[in-house]
Amino acid sequence: MSGRVRAGAFGPAQLGNGRNDRLLAVAAWTVPVLVGGVFGWLLFDLLRHGLGGLSWTFLTTAPEAAGRAGGIGPVLFSTLLILAVCLLAAVPVGMLTAVLLSGVVGRPPSQMRSTFLRSVRRSLDVLAGVPSIVFGLFGNAFFSIVLGMGFSILSGGLTLACMVLPIFIREAEEALRQVPAELRLSAAALGLSRTKTLTSILLPAALPGITVGLVLGIGRALAETAALIFTSGYVDRMPGSLLDSGRSLSIHIYDLSMNVAGGEPNAYATALVLVGLLLVINSAAASLSARWHRRG
Amino acid sequence: MARPADRVLSLASRVAAAASAVVVMLIALFVGWEAWPALRDVGSRFVTDSSWHPAAGTEAGTFGLLPMAAATGAAAAGVLVLATPAALLSAIFCRFYAPRPLAMIYRRLVELLAGVPSVVYGFWGLVVLVPLVRRLEPPGASLLTGILVLALMILPTVALTVDAAFGRAAEEHLAGGAALGLSRPTLIFEIVLPASRSGLATGLMLGAGRALGETMAVLMVCGNVVQIPDSLFDPVRTLTANIALEMAYATDHHRAALFVSGLVLLAAVSVLVLAAGRWGGVEPEMAS
Q1: Pairing with A274, which of A189, A220, B243, B256 sits 20 to 30 Å away (CA)?
Q2: Mean of pLDDT over chain B
C-alpha cells in the first residue's frame, strides 16, 4: 500500500551509484533543507518578537490606540463567534451532502441520480478553488447587502461556511466510504432502517474521519483573511450580537502591520497566537488521521 | 422499505447536496450581477484603457485592468518557475533518497507549512523579506518578493500532489525498472516521472490557481503600484490586491469594476480546476 520503494529495497549497489546519482542526491537534499530552514526562520522570528508580548492580560484585554497597546480579547472572542457560525452552517449541510455522495445510504444511483452526483462533485471541486477574495465579494454582495446582514459576524461566518464546505464534505465522504461494507450489510440484514443504520452504525464508525474534516475546516476558517474584510468587517470592540461587526485575528494582524504605524509588536504577538492555534489544530488533524488510517 | 424517517433522510440529503452545488453558481451569479453595470457601460475599455482611475466615473475615469492582470500573470508564472523544480525535488527526496522516518517528518513539516495563514506569510514577508530585497534593489516591496512568498505558500500543494503521484507510479513500475538494473536517476527520470505526468500537471494547475487567487500575501509584500512590471524589482499590484485595497470606498461603477476583476479571477481559476480534474482523470498510459 505504501508504494514507498527505496534504494534499500534493491540494494544500494544496484541503484545508488554513479555521478548522476550523487548529483541528484545533493539536489534532492537541498529542497528539504531550504524548506525546513525557512519554516524554522519564520517560527523563530515569530517567537523572538512575539513571545515577549504574550500574556494572559494580552489575551483578555481590549486593544487600545488602534491596537498598538492593549490586548486582543474582543478580537479572540469575535474570531470564535465567526468560527461557530461557520461550523453551525457548514457541518449539517456538509454532512448530509457527504451522506448522499458516499452512497452508503439508499439504492444504487440511477442514470439521472449519478449525473446529479457528478455535477455536485464538479461544483464542489470548483468551489474549493474559488479565490478567497472572490468569496469576500460574494459575501459582501449576497449576505451583507441582499440578505441585509451588513458588516456582521453572521455575514462573515456564513461566507466562511461556503469556503469550508468542500473541504469538510471531501473528508466526511471519504470517512463514510471507509466504513466496512459488512457493517452496513449486517444492519440491513437485521432490518434496521436506513436512518437508524446511519445514526447508530455509520456515523459512529466514521467519526474519527469526520473529525479530521472538521479540524481541517476549522484550520481553513481561522487562517482566512481576505473573505472577511468586507463581510465581518474591521470593528475591534466586543460584539454585542451576531449582527455586530467583529474583527478576526487574521484581520487584526493585517491591519496592525499595514495600516497602523508602530503596530508591529502586537502584530507579532497576535500572529504567534494564530500560528500556535493552527499548529495545534493541524497536528491534531494529522495524528487523528494517522490513527484513523492505521485502524482502517 | 420506505419508512418515514428514511424518506426525510433521503430528501434532506438531496436538498443539502443541491444547496452545496448551488453555492458556486450563486457566487458566479452575484459576482456577475454586481459586475454587469460596468461590463455594460465600460466594456472593452477594461482592456484598451492604459491606466486605472475608476473613481472619476464612466466618462472621465479609466478602467484598464491589463497592468494588474499582467502583474497577476507574472507573479503566477514566477511562482511556477520556482515551485515546479522544488516540488519535483521534494518528491524525489521523499520517495527515493530520504530515510523512511525522515521522509515522514518532512511530509508532516510540509503539511504544517500548508496550514500557516497567508496573512502570516504576508506579515513575515513584509518585515523580513522586503528589507532584504530592498538591500539588493529598492524599494523592496516588489514582484520578486511576492513571487518568493507565494512560491513558499504554493510549494506544499504542488509537492504533496507530486509526491502522491510518484507513490502510485513507483508502486506500478519501480520493481520492473529495478529488475532491468537501471540506475536510480534513470528510474526516476525515465520511468517514474513520465508515469506521473498527469499528477504533476494536476498539482501545477492547482498551484497556479492558488497563486492567481492569493490575496493577503501579495497585498502585503508587492508594493501595490499599478503598472506593468519592467523588472522583478518593480512594485506591482495584482487583481486580488486591488479588490482588497479599493472595496472599502468604491461606489457605483468603480465597485462594479472591482466585481469585474473578481469575475475574471473566478473564470481563470474555474478553467484551471476543471482542466486539472480532466487531466488528473486521464490514465498516465493514455496521456502518453
Answers
A1: B243
A2: 89
- Assigned CATH topology for domain A56-295: MetI-like fold (1.10.3720)
Cell digits of residue A9: 529495497
Do A18 and B14 count as a contact with CB atoms less than 8 A apart? no
Question: What is this model's ipTM?
Answer: 0.91
| B17: closest chain A residue by CA | A97
- In a domain? residue B172: yes
CATH number at residue B142: 1.10.3720.10
- A33 at B interface, C-beta within 8 A: no
Q: Is residue B76 part of a domain?
A: yes
Residues contacting residue A48 through CB under 8 Å, at least 6 positions apart:
none
Question: Higher-confidence residue: B5 or A172?
Answer: A172
Q: What is the greatest pairwise CA distance in chain B?
A: 74
Domain extents in chain A: 7-53, 56-295
* DSSP codes joined into one string, A13-67: HHHS-SHHHHHHHHHHHHHHHHHHHHHHHHHHHHHHHHGGG-SHHHHHSPEEGGG
How many C-beta atoms surround the C-beta of residue A1 within 10 A? 6
Q: Is A50 on the interface with B (CB under 8 A)?
A: no
Angstrom distance (rounded) from CA A154 to CA B41: 34
* Dist. CA A214–CA A91, nearest whole Å: 8
Q: Report how far residue A28's alpha carbon sits from residue B87's, in angstroms, rounded to the nearest whole number.
A: 10
Q: What is the pLDDT of residue B282?
A: 38
Domain contains B43? no
Domain that residue B148 falls in: 65-287
